[in-house]
Amino acid sequence: METIEKHLEKKGIRVTAMRLLIYKFLAEKKSAVTLSDIENAFDKVDRTTLYRTVKTFESKGVVHQINDGSTGTKYALCETNCKCELETDLHLHFHCNNCEETVCLTDHKIPQIKVPDGFIAENANLVVKGICNKCS
Amino acid sequence: METIEKHLEKKGIRVTAMRLLIYKFLAEKKSAVTLSDIENAFDKVDRTTLYRTVKTFESKGVVHQINDGSTGTKYALCETNCKCELETDLHLHFHCNNCEETVCLTDHKIPQIKVPDGFIAENANLVVKGICNKCS
DNA sequence: AAGTCCAATGCACTATTGTTGCACGTATAT
DNA sequence: ATATACGTGCAACAATAGTGCATTGGACTT
Lengths: 136, 136
Hints:
Chain A has helices at residues 4-10, 17-28, 35-41, 47-59, and strands at residues 63-66, 74-77, 91-96, 102-109, 120-131. Chain A is α+β, with helices and mostly antiparallel strands and 136 residues long. The first copy, chain A, has one domain (4-130): Arc Repressor Mutant, subunit A. In chain A, the strands form 2 sheets. Chain A has a 3-stranded mixed sheet with strand order 4-3-5, with no helix packed on it. The first copy, chain A, has a two-stranded antiparallel sheet with strand order 1-2. The relative contact order of chain A is 0.15. Strand 5 (120-131) of chain A pairs antiparallel with strand 6 of chain B, so a sheet runs across the interface. The first copy, chain A, binds a DNA duplex (30 and 30 nucleotides) through residues 14, 16, 18-19, 34-36, 45-49, 51-53, 56, 71-73.
């Protein structure tokens, strides 16, 4: 188990107090969160900082974006060994229509997705909606 | 080939001039569109009408929602024989990272998606991103 | 044909989310 | 230590989403 600091540095992200806090918040949550969720968690933090921090995390492969049907983009930490940027890591997400939570189903990967000739798949946004195990 | 009027009525939607226009616009487009796209197409139409019309279409199963990575929700007509509301019609969408267009790949269905025990799948939002045939 | 009713439309407004520019502080490298 | 680059916060703006209310207009009744 390496420290968060090491992990961020390895991804090319400079470590700051803010970033550690945000990372820890994401790590604690089991479900994907919106920027507003983070904002509400620490109310003294500026929205812009959050916005840019998460963008940084995303571009460095620390978090990935998910669009369930709800308004707004959600984010979740990538698994330690996650290769979100690669086509080979097309894992599924599940959005509960009842509790509105979205979780990563990292162990339920889509084996292969065929796209028509001429199309080149790079990554994906795969969300199944329904009722989650807590609500069923 | 039945008329649009019949089609809408069959879905339980009252036919109006506005709704026919909006339906025809969607039918002409090959790709999924945002509300703003529709708004720009006919500039005399009120945004609210668009918003509510599309919501009506969606709830009656005439259009389906797609969330590619871009900000904002997109909509596309369901196929004539589309059962968007059913788990059995989990068709794929393709979002081009170059031209930003999103199209339905209605003939590329996902065979079956397994979700863990306790989860109940109802529908899905499946978007593969990459480069489309026009841009590659 | 007139009147009633209800859904559809349009207007005004508010809320939320996404985004940028700039100023300032703090860390980093030379 | 000094210059430089990066992070943070403030302010403002833009785009998207959503609501309440008054008006219109079609469908239906009598």
